[in-house]
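Example protein as discussed:

>
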Amino acid sequence: MLIFPKVRLKANTLIQNTLPVVCLILLSLALLCFIHMSRHSFATSICLTNGVPIESLSQMMGHLSIKTTQIYAKVTRTKLNEDMSNLAQRIEGKYELAETVDETGLCQTITCDTTINR
């Protein structure tokens, strides 16, 4: 025999009514996290790593400002190494340092080839 039968009935009803709402809220949050992570992966792993300019990426993602795109787009070490290698290849043989060095250890003159092949 229950001492407080109505209180127990109300507690069960409350749990039965709120549990679906809590589950719906949690699923909604999980979906939002999934969407955010998908956009981040698309920006970093797919686009920027494969050489897509951040301006184009910003348009693809529907951002009005590149600052918004920069939140999603993280520079990876692989991309940084590729960019530095490309730069080294583009400027190879175009710039020379002078062979004379003054007493402070700085070059006195720097020779620069100003012709750029495009």
In short: The CA atoms of residues 58 and 66 lie 6 Å apart.
